[in-house]
Every structure is written in structure tokens, then in C-alpha cells.
Amino acid sequence: MTSAAGTSRYEEFSRYVAERGPALLRIAVGLTGNRSDAEDLLQAALVKTFFAWDRISSPHARDGYVRRAMVNTQISEWRRQHLTVFPTDEIPEQRVDDPTWRTDLADVVHRAVDRLPERQRATLILRYYEDLSEAQIADRLGVTVGTVKSTISRATAKLRLDADLAIERTTG
Fold this sequence. Notes:
Blueprint: H1 9-32, H2 35-51, H3 62-83, H4 100-114, H5 118-129, H6 134-141, H7 145-161, H8 163-171
Helix pairs in contact: 1-2, 1-3, 2-3, 5-7, 6-7
């Protein structure tokens, strides 16, 4: 079957998937929580969409159709999984990773860097956060490369001796 423009629905659908696939995959990852399941979910939704392709009158409605197909498919999957879970009086032991340590560590490091003298702080930020070379830092700050190296060395030495970071190393 061909459209008025002379392209087959297969070609039109293939173009749509190539163009919108990455954005739709991001939505699917949000629904499933991981890329592998998201790819399966998107594939199932695209199959449903392909069979309804001729009925989707507006090109602007296609994303909405695929999103709705993904949501409906995912809800069905949740219901199927829910049926296999049975209530019990015993709670199984499960290890739960606490991702908050990353933000706590980032906060401790940020505060430690803030306590450095201005030139040391600026040099560290340019080197390790902005990923500039020592020559680029020297040019930006108007100092020699040797000054940049010694400033970074002194700053990292101070960070190694920072009491809050030492506590974080022993508890983290």
C-alpha cells in the first residue's frame, strides 16, 4: 500500500522510527527503569503502532499513539508481574543500596574545595571540573605552567589533609 506521496507505509514507518526512536526510547526507559526492558517495551509498542499506521490520520498524533501503546503495554506487564507476588508474613532479607552517599560525598567535596584559597580553588575547578590542560589554565589565569602545577599540588595536598574528607574516607 502506498500513500499519496508515493512512499509505502513501510518506508514511512521506517523513517518515523529512525527519526523518533531515540526520544521514544527515553520515554520507555522512564517507564521501565532500564534500557533492556525499555527496548522490549518500545518494540512491542511500535508493532502495535505499525498495525494501526493507516488509521493514524495526523502525523502529529503518532508520538501520542506510541506513548499510549507503551503505557498500556507496561501497565499490562505490571499486572502480570503483580499476579506472581503473594503476600507473606515473612519479609525476605534484601540488600538495599543507598544512593544518597553520592550526594553526601559530593557535598563534602564541594565544601572542602570551597575552603581552599581562591587561586587554588580556581585552579582545581579549571583542571578537574572544566578539564582544561595546565597550559590552558596558565593562559586563562595569566600565570606560568609551573605555577599551575605547584598550585594544583598544594591544593590537592590540602584536600588530602581536610578533616571532613578524612572522615568521609573512613566511613564511606
